[in-house]
Amino acid sequence: MVGDNSPIISNMTPPQANTGETVGVTISGTHFGLNPTLQIGGVGVNATITSSSPTQITAYFSVADATIIGTRGVQVKSRGINGTTFQTTPQTSDLSNSVPFNVTDSPFLVLIRFPEGVVEKNGEAIVRFDADTNSSQTTKFTIRKLAGTGNATFEDGSLEKTYTGQVSAVETIKGITESSQANNFTIEAKINNSSTIRAHSEFTVAKIDSIVFEQINANDITIDNNPGTDGIHTPEEGSRIYPDKISTTDTTDRTTLRIKATVSPAIPSLVVYFASFDLDDPSAKGLPIDTTNVDGKDNNGNVNGSKSGEFVNPTGGDCLSSVTGTMANDYVSKIDCTTSTTTVSSNYKVTMQPGDNFAVAASLSRDFRDYMRLNPTDGNQITDYASRAIHINGEANSANTSGIRTKMLTVWRKLHIEVDSMGNVGTDNKVTGAITLNETVICPPGTPGCTAGSQFARLTVNTTPALETSRFDNGRMQIGTYYYQVLGNSQNQVFLTTAITERLPANTAFTLWDDDDYNNNDGTNKDGDNNEIINLLPDNQPGGVDMIYQSSYIVTDRMALNLYNQTNLQFDLNIDTTGSTTDELHLALNNNRGSVNSEKDDFWVAYFLIGYQGKENEDADGDGSNPGISRREPNTDPLCDCVREVNDVAPCSGLTCPLETVGGVVKPKLPAGAFGSAIYQEVQQDTHRSWLLAQNYNYQNIRTTLPHELGHQFGLKGDIVRSTFQIMDYDTLDTLGRPVSNIFGLNPEHINLIRRRTKSPGK
Amino acid sequence: MKTIKTLTIAFVLVIIVVAKSFAQESNDNSDFNQLSFEVELNKTTYFSLETMFVTFRLINRTQNSVIADRPSFLNDSTLKIINFRGETKEITSMSLSSGRPQKLPGKKPMLQPSQTYEEITVPSITSEIFSDKGKYKLQFFLNGLASNVIEITITDPTGLNKDAFDFFSQYQGRNSFEWIWTEKNGIVLLEEFVSKYGESVYGEQAIYALGNIYKARDEIEKAQNEFEKIKTSDNKLIANQANKSLQDIKTRKMCLEKDKKP
User: A105-108: long-range contacts (C-beta < 8 A, 24 or more apart)?
Assistant: First the structure.
């Protein structure tokens, strides 16, 4: 009939299939149009069209295992020549004639079980084959690519596996190159070389292209390159995270970051299996810092018991089966996350201990992930079941392993420093009095500093109170309009470098200045730093301590506590120290420490008061010099040098930290450190100058004081003349009796103590 | 000029006692053990948590000068305490401070015959050590020297002292006054303590602390009032501290007066 565009089936082959079987069917005819569909009567037979043209349709007919035996009608439904609308005219129909499709009882059942439907590039996946055939029949399983690109084989490189008789087999499929699209491979089962596909299962070769850490909060401190303990970044040192709070009022959790994997091809519902590891500490091999030598699992902190951190399903995330690592499983934590497109992510929480380090690995195979281990002879390596190193994100997969891991991630801590300094010295750093007697004295033979037989003045003076003995050594004296250099003094006598031949009237007034010159700018005209402002000397800049404390994965910051910094505190010529909690030192530190309530476990604080001089007998204007002093609170444990676990009797060159029992467990107790330190600039300069004048010796005391005192705030003791504890010891003496600054570094025992701290230094 | 400046205290002392010590210098030695070590406490009976002020003395009772570095008494000493039950405890750390003086080049700290190094200090001894009331014997040890043995008695505070004790016992650090800094209204609490219990045995330190806080805030009149209260204290250390602070205030006032002048 003219105008009749009804689809017509002229032939369908094969016209039958067994239960449980999938067959490829070809339907021939006319007027099928574009994008036709098939309608099959009854239940139990489903069609999937794989190609179509106006005259031919190819499709899989999948017959359910348990369905009714018998004949179904098959019809083509046309959607017109453009695949959208069928033009209906009288006596035409979009449905074709019905042709019979007969379902018969299967003589055998073939099953392919490949539940994941994914094999990872360079990885392997297990597929199970079952065929309920008789002894004379063969079943062939073939891997065939349906579309796009990619490559997959059986484990031996073949594409076919053939079995005779009943089959119950496990085969391994290898992913060679990743698929360009989802489900572009199929495994088909055929019996006796028949063209009939008895069973099939589609799969994809997928790949994790990258795995990276990302910060979660926009104002988290940026994850950057880990500079290592030498301050120079190398690629193997990976990245670093600061888990600290960023301000005194910060309430955001900064210990958690995002671990993100990107997969290809884009497959929704693909599962990425993550695992975290506690890598070996690269900065030490062996005690006291590294308890496991070349192996990992040596972090000092833990997250709910796991040294490798812990995964947490993010809000709105699609992660399941989070497992927190325990000692029994080498502290490996795990989580399984499902992709929505090409990426998948989980939240990941790290410890707070400086120097703790981690890596996260991932695989598309749960089994493969579960076999990942740290290499016990190189704890920076994560290996697969065959002891091959899992490749690091961004690096070549030279061992052709499945899976991928992040670079090392290392925890660094910020130490927030408050620095206050005194103001103007004023005009009173001097002594006035009256001269009661002027005598000329002859320098005795053999007296260094004056020529034998030369003359100099010995002045008897009257002052209230009496002079501090030796305070005015190398100072200056004004009598009338004349100035004299001072050799030294006792309580009531002053010795000048020259004689005064003029007669001095009784009770001639004088002014004495000692050699105080905190910034070394007065030359010989010492004036007690008259009206000078106390400024930070370059060597006192806290940034200078970073070079030393980076060995403990700590850097200093002066911005967060900037609001507390004061620069014009009331001047005190000598801050007295008696040991009392109400002595001048204790009160000066506490009076000015604005950050006193800012210290928290996740916000570490150190405090420095830049002053002028300490107590009188330590101000370098006599025989003693103490350029810095730190103070701890009462009823706290003494500072110590070595951390020892119970029953660990390894010797300590200093004082071993005490033990405490917490929850029935005996463990080392780290003392609260000093809550603040006073740095005496004039004493530093005076000491330095004394050595320069006495022996032309450039003594490096100025740069050592601040990092030394900071060590006390971290609870480090040291303070013995030796070289054991480096910056924390007093300087050793060379053969000429001169102090030689110890190494500008920290002893491993002290690094260990710092890295185990959980509390802010003064706490 | 610089070479002359290298003349140090040791040589100045030589000059002072030219006739006397030149001949003796060969007999000088640095044997610290030749010195006598004596200790004195400011009281013999203390109330619980009352501060002990300890005077350390190193005395040269020999006929010769003794070269001896000035010790850091609190850092270098240990303390043996025997309680009334005969139990012994040793305190190895009595200093809250870290840091000690180092000798300057060419200095030869020397104690002449009969000369004394003396220092009043406040050792840090945890409150638990004297928590039981009764008699205790104390002996200090310094670089191989043993001090005289001192007997003290610890008793419960009563009356005003008990009230003061109860007041600070509510707060962190108790008699150490740590609570001034850790409590939000710590300074107000200290003012209250001074007002109510300034006359107690715990009061003078509180007064000094309060004066110092005022001084740091440049509230110099208020600071002066506090220091005036204790400038004649029987406690030599407290009196010295107060008088030094009053001197500072006097200087400060002079500076302020100068600033006012056009």
Answer: A105/A18, A105/A19, A105/A69, A106/A18, A106/A19, A106/A20, A106/A21, A106/A65, A107/A18, A108/A132, A108/A133, A108/A134, A108/A137, A108/A191, A108/A198
- Which among A464, A477, A354 is positioned nearest to A755, based on CA atoms? A354
Distance between CA atoms of B75 and A629, rounded to whole angstroms?
A: 12
3-state secondary structure of A112: strand
Q: What is the pLDDT of residues A161-219, one digit of tens each?
A: 999 999 999 999 999 999 999 999 999 999 888 777 888 999 999 999 999 999 999 88
* pLDDT beyond 50 at B21: no
Q: Determine the Cα–Cα distance for residues A51 and A548; give it in Å rounded to an integer.
A: 71
Chain B touched by A376 (CB under 8 Å):
no
What is each CA distance from B37 to A579, B115, B145, B193, B243, in whole angstroms? 19, 12, 6, 38, 28
- Please say if the pLDDT value at position B24 is more than 70: no
Query: Can you give the length of chain B in residues?
Result: 262
Residue of A nearest to B128 (CA): A635
Whether A739 contacts chain B with CB within 8 A: yes
* β-pairing verdict for A118-120 and A197-214: parallel
Q: CB atoms < 10 A from the CB of A320, how many? A: 11
CB A323 within 8 A of CB A346: no
Instruction: Give the tens place of pLDDT for each residue, B196-247.
Output: 999 999 999 999 999 999 998 889 999 999 999 999 999 999 999 999 899 8
Where helices occur in A534-623 by DSSP H, the ranges are 546-549, 584-592
Answer yes or no: is the ipTM higher than 0.85: yes
| Residue A260 identity (one-letter amino acid) | K
Task: Select from B4, B98, B100, B256 the residue whose CB has the most chain A CBs within 10 Å, as the one to mutate to test that interface.
Answer: B98
* Confidence check: pLDDT of A1 > 60: no
Which residues 69-108 of A are in CB contact (within 8 Å) with B?
none
Contact status of A405 with chain B (Cβ, < 8 Å): no
B241 touches A at CB < 8 Å = yes
Of A428, A460, A424, whose CA–CA distance to A441 is shortest?
A460
> Phi, psi (5° rounding) for residue A151?
-155, 135
User: What span, in angstroms and rounded, lies between the C-alpha atoms of B177 and B181?
Assistant: 8
First vs last Cα of chain B: how many Å apart? 41
B2 at interface of A, judged by CB pairs closer than 8 A: yes
Bin A750: left if φ > 0, else alpha if -120 < ψ < 50, else beta: alpha
pLDDT cut 70: percent of chain A above it? 98
Q: Is the dihedral of CA A593, A595, A599, A605 positive or negative?
A: negative
Q: Give alpha helix (H) positions in A321-454.
A: 366-371
A306 within 8 A of A331, measured Cβ to Cβ: yes
The one-character DSSP state at B26 is G
